[in-house]
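ok here's Membrane protein:
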Amino acid sequence: MKSTKNWSVLLGAAFLMATSAVGPGFLTQTTVFTQKLGASFGFVILVSILLDIVVQLNVWRVIAVSEKRAQEIANLVLPGLGVFISILIVLGGFAFNIGNVGGAGLGFQVLLGITPETGAILAALMAIVIFLVREAGKVMDRFAQVMGLLMILLIIYVAVVSAPPLGEAAVKTILPDQLDLMAIITLVGGTVGGYITFAGGHRLLDAGIRGEASLPSVNTSAVSGITIASIIRVFLFLATLGVVSKGLALDEANPPASVFQLAAGAVGYKLFGLVMLAAAVTSIVGSAYTSVSFLKSFHSRIASNEKWFIIGFIAISTIIFVLIGKPVHLLILAGSLNGLILPITLATILIAAYRFKIIGTYRHPLWLAILGVIAVLMMAYMGGVTLVNQLPQLFE
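and the structure:
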């Protein structure tokens, strides 16, 4: 019975990480890059998947072995660093959550014909209900699993209907016509950047999956999370490629919606609404849960009233969206911060992996650490370039 319970938690953590990653930005990002790079985008996806796995294995293993949350680990590496990282992640999570709420409102608008603001309020209420029930952790795990599976099935359907050139996609995934490093960095940041890096690791810790003996389970859960997000990404790529390869133009205002509509007509457009809603609501849940998990260790009152802080996080995000609309500049800055947060947090975890007072007698695999350092350097460089390029837009 215990192994069944553990498997449910491991799968729940994997789906929480994956569905946190698959938000409105993920859908648009994948569609736009496929339109730009064509079949060669398959190579970008392949490289980003490998980098994602390196990041998650490093982070989740150290969290499990140390039996501490990321901010606690960071404070042991350098006093005050955990507070700094927590502020970055909570601000980034909050900014993206406003976008997630807006995406959910758009999903409801497509499905029911209501305004995005009304839809956003309905979506927020759905997310809040999850945290009001007695066993919120279990409900959150199950909700992430069901919504994740729904997204996979719907996107596979649209990918099949769009009839993409599979042979070309397979060849260009190995031998691309062009290489877009910025696309790789964007995908990695969008899939395992900011709060998403810790969504599953903190969930496992809260569920009691910890210690060196749990590492095989932690590895399975981390790789499963990346695999789920990658399956969604690959089939969305194929669906878009099928549409683009026929010479059909995507609507610049809403690229992913036009993919579904061009591939499957009016039914496809409604399916997009359902996918967008599922992607947005699961991202709202993941963002709120993980962001508040970074605040729990700073005051006992936050830990004992966790669900109310999560609910407040969701409510404030929704109110800002309804009153102001989608704050484009805030989202731009948050996107750049995500590119910078990952190298800072991953570098901190890699240092912690070799501190006896944090991980005890555990020996972190050298090959994993080396690949982690490469990921830190890549993300630091590209994150810095992106931030420098986008900061002027904030003052226009």
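+1. The radius of gyration is 20 Å.
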